[in-house]
Design brief:
The complex is a heterotrimer. By secondary structure, chain A is mostly helical. Chain A contains 12 helices and no strands. Chain A is elongated, with a radius of gyration of 23 Å. Classes of the chains: A mainly alpha, B mainly alpha, C alpha/beta. The interface between A and B is large, with 46 and 55 residues. Chain C: It is found in: Cell membrane.
C-alpha cells in the first residue's frame, strides 16, 4: 500500500501552478467528507482502536484480578460496567478484550489480503489456465458456508485464536481474490497498460506501477467490510469456545461465558454485545461511505 | 427451460468435485502426524495405530482420496472417530432440524427483507426511509448469537411465549414445530433480511426511476399497483441472485443459532465434531451442507429464469 | 375559446435546486382545439417536456411544483386535482407517448398485458375483453400477426414496433388529447416517417387533439397545424405552421429555420451560437439577446419583451419584431 503512485505524485507537483481539476484522491476526500455517517463511523473506529491501544492506561482495574466477594455486581461507581462471575472488572476486561478482537480482525483480514490479492493479480493479469484454476477454486470455497468452513478449519488445526484467524482469513480470501481479479481484468484493457507494455515494461513493473494502484480503491471498501465480517466471525467462533482461550478473552468469549448469568446480570451480556455491534456497524458504514465517495466507476465491488 | 436446468446441473459436477477435494484435503493440513494429533497427547501407541489404520493413513494420498470419494458417492461418509456412529446416519438424523430452520428463516428473510427494502425505496429520503436504513444497518452488524440470547431471555424466559430451546418435529406437532423454530428462525433471518432489504432498496429505487414506470403512470395506473404489480417484479430480479448467495450464509450462521437454541441440527453436530476433532464428521457435515447449498442455488437460478422473460425465451 | 380542448394559461413550473426554486417554465399559454395538432418546438432544456409533463400531472412531486397558471381540459381545471382524480384522467382522456421506445415498455410483462392494464383500469374490462381489444389495437397500429405478438415480451420487438405498441397503449381508451413527446427522435428516418404517418392517420380517424413536442422543425412542418416555439422556459413565438415557416417573427425561430437543410431531413439543431441558459443564470432583458445577432444594446439586454400580437394570429416575444425583416423559407 506504500507503492508510490506516479500519477498522484505528478498531480501534487503540478497543482500549485494552475487550478487544474482535482486529483482522484482530492475528489475522494471531498466526497467522503460529505458522507456524514461514514465520517462519524471513522471517528468511532478511531476511538475504539485508541481505547484498545491505550487499555493499560484507561483500565481502572487489573482485568484478570478476581475478587470473589465482588461477584456479578451491576454497574456502579467503582466498577463502571459492573463485575463478572469471578468478580473481575468488566470495563477493564472490555478494553483488553477489544485489543484481541481488533487485532484478530486485522490479522485475519491481512491473511485474506495476503492470499487473495496476489492470486487475484495473477489470475487477472496472466489469464489462461491460471485464471481458470484459481477462479474455480474460489468458486468452490465461496460455495461452502463461510462459518461452517471456518469452524472446520479451526477443528482441523486446533481450537485457538491463531487457528480462528487463519480460518477467517482463508474463508474471506476468495472475496479479495475476485475483487482484485476483476479490477485487474478491467485495468488490463486500459490503453496505458498497452503503452507500458509496448515500451517494454516488465510484468512486475506493470503490476506494481499500474494495476495495483488502480485496484486499490475498491480494495479499501472491501477491507473495511472484511474487518466488520472478521470481528463478527471471531466473536462467533470465540463465543462457541473454539477461538481465543483463557486467560485471554475477546468480546465474543466474554459473551460466551456470560450467557448463564444473563438473567441475574444482563450487563455481562449486553455490554460486550453492544461493543461488537457498534464496532461492526462502524466498519460497515465506513465501507459504504468509501464506496459512495469513489464515484460510479467502482461503485459495485463484487458481492 | 428443462435444458437450462440440465445444463446448470451438469456445471455443478466439477464444482462439487473441487469441493470434495477441499473438504477431504483438510486432513492433509493437520500439522504433524494426523493420527497423533487426533488421538491427543494422552493416547497410547496402540490407539494411535488404530486411528492410523482407520484413516488408512499409510496409503498414498490419491488412493486415500479415491477411496473416500468412491464411498462418499455411494452415500458412505465414513464413521465417527468417537461414537463409531455412521456419519451418514448422524447427518440423516440431524438434517430435518437444520433444513426446517433454514427454510423458515429464508422465507422470513425474503418476505421481511424485500418488504422493508421496497417500502424504503418508495419513501426514499423521507423519515421512514431513514429509519429503515438505520435498522437494516444495525441488522447487518448485530452478532446473531447475541440477538438470539436477547430473544430467548425476553420472549422465552420472561414472557414464556416460546420454548427456550429444543426441537419438535413437524410430523409430531406442527404448531409445536413452528413455536420451537420461531425464535431461532428470527435470529437466523435478521442478517439476511437486512442484506436483502439493502439490495431491494437499491434495486427498487433504480426501477422506480426507469422510463417504463413513467409509462405506467401515464396509463393512469395507481401508484400502489405500479409498485406492487410492476416495479416489484422488475426490482426482484437482481435481488433473487443475492438471495441465492444468502442461502450459504444461512447454513453457516445456523451453526451458532442451533447451539444457542439447543437444536440438534447439522450445525450443532459440526460444532461438537470440531470440539472433538472428529474429522469424518466435520467432513461429512461440510460436504453435505455445501451440496445442499449448491442445489438450492440452482433452484434460485431457475426461479430467476421464471421471473426474467429474457432468460426464459432464450 | 370555450370550445378548446386544452387551455394552458400562464403556466409556471418550478424545480427545487440547492439555491431554492428555479423557474423552468414561465408564463406559458396555448390552446389546442379538438382534432387539432399543436407543435411545441424548442431545443432540449427549453421547458417543452416539462410543460407536457405538467399537463399530464406527471411532474415529480416534492422536487417540482406548478407555481402559477391553469391547465384546463374541456373546461375542467386540472391544476391542484388530487392524484387519484388525475390518474383517472391519465391514459383515459389524455394519453402520452415518449421519446425512448426502447425503455418505455416494461420488460417484465407481455405487451398485451401492458395494453390490457389500461383498459382494465379505466374501462373495467374483463381479462378476456381487454385481451381481445389489445389485439385489435395492435392491428390498428400496424403490428403484423397481432394475435400472436400480443403474448410476446417487449425485448422481441424493434424500436419502431415498440413505439407502435406505445401508441396502442396511448390510444386504448380513445383519448381526447394525445401528448407525443419527441416520439420519433430515437428512430431511424424511414421508421420515423411511418410512425408520423400512422399518428396523422389515427388522429384523423379518432379526432384527437395532439400536442406534438419536438426539437425538429422538419417533423413539425409535416404534422402540426399550429406551432408554439419555446426558448428558455418561455413561449417566444406562436402562429399557424405556414406562418412560422414563411414569416418568422422571432430571431430564434429564424435561427432554427436556418438550420434546416434544403430537404426537410433529420438534422439536429445547430448554427445558433451559444447555449440555452439554465433557469438559474437567465440573462436580463430578452432571454435570447446574448445569442441574437439582431440584438440592440441598451434595449434588448434591459427590457424584457412581452408576447405581443405582431400580425393577425401571430405572436412573438421580441422588442424588434416590427422593425426587423426576418428570413423565412418558402
Amino acid at each position: 500500500m506504500t507503492t508510490i503512485r506516479p500519477t498522484t505524485a505528478a498531480g501534487a507537483r503540478e497543482r500549485p501552478l494552475t487550478d487544474r481539476p482535482e486529483s482522484p484522491r482530492q475528489r475522494f476526500v471531498r466526497r467522503f467528507r460529505r458522507e456524514r455517517p461514514a465520517v462519524v463511523a471513522l471517528v468511532v473506529v478511531v476511538l475504539i482502536a485508541l481505547a484498545a491501544l491505550l487499555a493499560p492506561l484507561l483500565a481502572t482495574h487489573d482485568p484478570d484480578a478476581q475478587v470473589l466477594t465482588d461477584r456479578l455486581q451491576a454497574p456502579n461507581g467503582e466498577h463502571w460496567f459492573g463485575t463478572d462471575d469471578l468478580g473481575r472488572d468488566v470495563y477493564s476486561r472490555l478494553l483488553y478484550a477489544g485489543r484481541i478482537s481488533l487485532l484478530a480482525a486485522v490479522q485475519a483480514t491481512a491473511i485474506g489480503i495476503a492470499i487473495g490479492v496476489p492470486l487475484g493479480l495473477a489470475a487477472g493479469y496472466l489469464r489462461g489456465w491460471v485464471d481458470v484454476v484459481l477462479s474455480r477454486i474460489a468458486d468452490a470455497v465461496m460455495s461452502i458456508p463461510a462459518l461452517l468452513l471456518a469452524l472446520a478449519i479451526v477443528g482441523i488445526l486446533e481450537p485457538d485464536l491463531t487457528s480462528a484467524m487463519i480460518a477467517i482469513g482463508l474463508v474471506y480470501a476468495p472475496q479479495f481474490f475476485r475483487l482484485t481479479r476483476a479490477s485487474t481484468l478491467a485495468v488490463r484493457e486500459e490503453t496505458f497498460i498497452e503503452a507500458a507494455r509496448s515500451v517494454g515494461g516488465t510484468s512486475r513493473a506493470i503490476i506494481t506501477g499500474h494495476v495495483l494502484p488502480n485496484a486499490l480503491s475498491p480494495l479499501v471498501v472491501q477491507i473495511s467490510l472484511a474487518m466488520g465480517f472478521a470481528i463478527l466471525f471471531e466473536a462467533s467462533i470465540s463465543f462457541l469456545g473454539l477461538g481465543v482461550q483463557p486467560p485471554d478473552s475477546s468480546w465474543g468469549s466474554m459473551l460466551g461465558r456470560s450467557t448463564r448469568f444473563f438473567e441475574q446480570s444482563p450487563h455481562l451480556v449486553l455490554i460486550p454485545g453492544l461493543a461488537i455491534l457498534v464496532t461492526v456497524l462502524a466498519f460497515n458504514v465506513i465501507g459504504d461511505g468509501v464506496r459512495d465517495s469513489l464515484g460510479r466507476e467502482v461503485r459495485r465491488p463484487t458481492q | 427451460m428443462i435444458r437450462m436446468v440440465a445444463r446448470r446441473l451438469l456445471a455443478l459436477v466439477p464444482l462439487v468435485f473441487i469441493v470434495t477435494l477441499l473438504v477431504w484435503g483438510l486432513v492433509l493440513v493437520i500439522p504433524g502426524d494426523p493420527a497423533l494429533a487426533i488421538a491427543g497427547d494422552s493416547a497410547t501407541p496402540e490407539q494411535v495405530e488404530a486411528i492410523r489404520a482407520d484413516l488408512g493413513l499409510d496409503d498414498p494420498v490419491p488412493v486415500r482420496y479415491g477411496r473416500w470419494l468412491a464411498d462418499a458417492v455411494q452415500g458412505d461418509l465414513g464413521t465417527s472417530l468417537y461414537t463409531s456412529y455412521s456419519v451418514t446416519d448422524a447427518l440423516a438424523d440431524r438434517l430435518p432440524v437444520t433444513l426446517s430452520l433454514v427454510f423458515v428463516a429464508f422465507l422470513l428473510a425474503v418476505v421481511v427483507g424485500t418488504t422493508i427494502g421496497a417500502l424504503a425505496a418508495t419513501r426514499k429520503g423521507r423519515p421512514t426511509d431513514r429509519i429503515l436504513t438505520v435498522t437494516t444497518s444495525v441488522g447487518l452488524a448485530v452478532p446473531n448469537f447475541w440477538l438470539g440470547l436477547l430473544l430467548v431471555t425476553f420472549f422465552a424466559l420472561k414472557l414464556e411465549w416460546f420454548p427456550s430451546g429444543g426441537y419438535v418435529p413437524f410430523t409430531e406437532d406442527p404448531v409445536g414445530w413452528l413455536r420451537s423454530i420461531a425464535l431461532p428462525a428470527v435470529t437466523l433471518a435478521t442478517a439476511v433480511a437486512a442484506e436483502l432489504a439493502r439490495q431491494m432498496r437499491a434495486s427498487m429505487s433504480d426501477v422506480l426511476e426507469r422510463d417504463f414506470v413513467r409509462t405506467h403512470r401515464a396509463k393512469g395506473l395507481r401508484s400502489s399497483t405500479i409498485v406492487r404489480r410492476y416495479a416489484l417484479k422488475n426490482a426482484s430480479m437482481p435481488v433473487i441472485t443475492v438471495a441465492g448467495l444468502q442461502v450459504a450464509r444461512l447454513f453457516g450462521l445456523a451453526t451458532v443459532v442451533e447451539i444457542i437454541f439447543n437444536l440438534n441440527g447439522v450445525g450443532a453436530l459440526a460444532v461438537d465434531a470440531v470440539f472433538d476433532r472428529d474429522i469424518p464428521v466435520i467432513q461429512g457435515c461440510v460436504l453435505v451442507i455445501t451440496v445442499i447449498v449448491l442445489l438450492v442455488n440452482l433452484l434460485v437460478d431457475v426461479s430467476y429464469g421464471l421471473v426474467n422473460p429474457k432468460v426464459r425465451t432464450q | 375559446m370555450s370550445d378548446a380542448l386544452l387551455e394552458v394559461e400562464g403556466l409556471a413550473v418550478e424545480f427545487a435546486t440547492a439555491q431554492g426554486w428555479a423557474r423552468v417554465v414561465d408564463d406559458v399559454s396555448f390552446t389546442i382545439g379538438r382534432g387539432e395538432t399543436l407543435g411545441l418546438l424548442g431545443e432540449s432544456g427549453c421547458g417543452k417536456s416539462v410543460t407536457s409533463l405538467a399537463v399530464m400531472g406527471l411532474l415529480p412531486p416534492r422536487s417540482s411544483r406548478i407555481a402559477e397558471g391553469s391547465i384546463r381540459l374541456d373546461g375542467r381545471e386540472l391544476r391542484g386535482l388530487p392524484e387519484s382524480q388525475l390518474s383517472d384522467i391519465r391514459g383515459n382522456a389524455v394519453s402520452m407517448i415518449f421519446q425512448e421506445p426502447m425503455t418505455s415498455l416494461d420488460p417484465a410483462f407481455r405487451v398485451g398485458e401492458q395494453i390490457a392494464a389500461v383498459l382494465r383500469r379505466h374501462r373495467g374490462a374483463s381479462r378476456s375483453q381487454a385481451r381481445r381489444r389489445a389485439v385489435e389495437l395492435l392491428e390498428l397500429v400496424g403490428i403484423p400477426e397481432a394475435a400472436r405478438r400480443v403474448d410476446d415480451y417487449p425485448h422481441t420487438f424493434s424500436g419502431g414496433m415498440r413505439q407502435r405498441v406505445m401508441i396502442a397503449i396511448a390510444l386504448a381508451c380513445e383519448p381526447d388529447l394525445l401528448i407525443a413527446d419527441e416520439p420519433t427522435t430515437a428512430l431511424d428516418v424511414t421508421v420515423q416517417k411511418q410512425i408520423l404517418e400512422l399518428l396523422a392517420g389515427l388522429q384523423e380517424r379518432l379526432g384527437m387533439g395532439v400536442l406534438f413536442v419536438t426539437h425538429d422543425m422538419g417533423v413539425i412542418s409535416q404534422i402540426s397545424d399550429r406551432v408554439v416555439v419555446m426558448y428558455a422556459g418561455q413561449v417566444v413565438e406562436q402562429a399557424a405552421t405556414e406562418e412560422v415557416f414563411w414569416h418568422p417573427q422571432h430571431p430564434y425561430t429564424e435561427g432554427l429555420l436556418a438550420c434546416l437543410p434544403a430537404e426537410h431531413g433529420r438534422e439536429r439543431l445547430r448554427g445558433i451560437p451559444g447555449l440555452v441558459p439554465g433557469p438559474l443564470d437567465l440573462p436580463g432583458g430578452c432571454r435570447f439577446h446574448p445569442r441574437c445577432h439582431h440584438a440592440v444594446a441598451g434595449l434588448c439586454d434591459v427590457t424584457p419583451p412581452g408576447l405581443d400580437e405582431v400580425l393577425a394570429g401571430h405572436r412573438a416575444r421580441c422588442l424588434l419584431a416590427r422593425d426587423i425583416e426576418l428570413q423565412g423559407i418558402s
